[in-house]
What does this fold into?
Amino acid sequence: MRVVVTGGAGFIGANFVHLALKERPDWTIIVIDKLTYAGNKDSLPDSGYEFYKLDIAIQNQELEQVIKSCDAIVHFAAESHNDNSLESPWPFIESNIIGTFRLLELARKHHKRFHHVSTDEVYGDLELDSSDKFTETTPYKPSSPYSSSKACSDMLVLAWIRSYGLDATISNCSNNYGPRQHVEKFIPRQITEILQGRQPRLYGSGLQVRDWIHVDDHNSAVIKILESSTMGEYYLIGANGEQTNMQVVKKLLKSLGKSEDDFVHVEDRAGHDLRYAIDSTKLQTTLGWRPRYSDFDAGLEQTIEWYRNNQEWWEDAKRVTENNYLKKGH
Ligand code: NAD
Ligand code: TDX
It folds into this structure.
């Protein structure tokens, strides 16, 4: 199978390429990536795949030729950071909505299998003190320019399935963690702050809850859906990893030999979602998927180790990212 991976130089896409080369050696992997600030070719393996530097939001013949040559598309490419979407929403509209539209049109024209990677943030948030979880029937109620652009892209995929019979599936996953995540995101930002001798920054109270899943578990679910699901199916991916942001920061501090209280509170994110939680029963019962990283603390240790050992991968991006956060007063 020739599989196009859009956004393959980003966090989840690059980890997908590593996993697929290891676990599906008979696949041919073709990476498409615009190499935005979030894309990094050093995240990819040294060899074993094709690479095309292309913008999915711009119609062009090379993009069409690559899509024409494949059997399936796994669509990760997106602008992905909520804070950036609050500062500057347009790139999110362009890459997430127009980019998805262009890929859908190419997949329709050339009759390709399409898997759309989306997020649980399309559902908005849950109350902090409830035990509710998102399911496949939860209504969409996105909060940020990022999550609304992802919700819009999901709607386009649903319409292409129904109106054109596109052989597509959608998955909405919770917060990923693991190696090769950009240092703008919560866990790598705090690990690298501590490694550089500064204090972790908690937005607002720090009592917001995220449902963490290891990136390899997200990607093993995507492979499962790509291989086993029927057209039009829709899955939530999660691994019961609920933690408050403060709990995560305390774990990181302890693990890196600091006092658990050595963090600071900074101004809260506008429209900050309180809690996400995923019910992945459908994926588990219909496709038999199970997460391999059931121990969040062990996964976090592995992630810390990766950042400790790969400073050259993150230090340039760290400088730029912290300058940007500084301008915002963080
Ligand atoms: P990321 O920002 O690390 O990577 C995104 C990649 O897409 C980058 O390599 C970037 O260069 C590329 N890209 C952006 N716009 C492009 C364009 N117009 N054309 C081609 N390439 C483009 O993001 P990530 O965290 O790896 O997320 C990947 C996907 O998974 C996104 O669709 C995101 O919405 C979804 N998702 C992420 C999480 C999470 O916790 N990170 C959770 C659920 C779903
Ligand atoms: O410095 C920080 N301090 C802090 O308290 C940062 C960067 C974040 N936070 C908080 C905000 C959130 O409650 O930590 C939580 C996680 O923040 P992010 O890493 O920015 O992730 P989130 O906004 O939850 O979205 C992530 O999960 C869903 C990804 O970035 C999305 O791409 C994905 O769709």
Notes: The first strand starts at residue 2 and ends at 6. The pocket of thymidine-5'-diphospho-beta-D-xylose (ligand 2) is lined by residues 80-82, 119, 121, 175, 185-186, 189, 201-203, 208, 210, 245, 269 (CB under 6 Å). The radius of gyration is 19 Å.
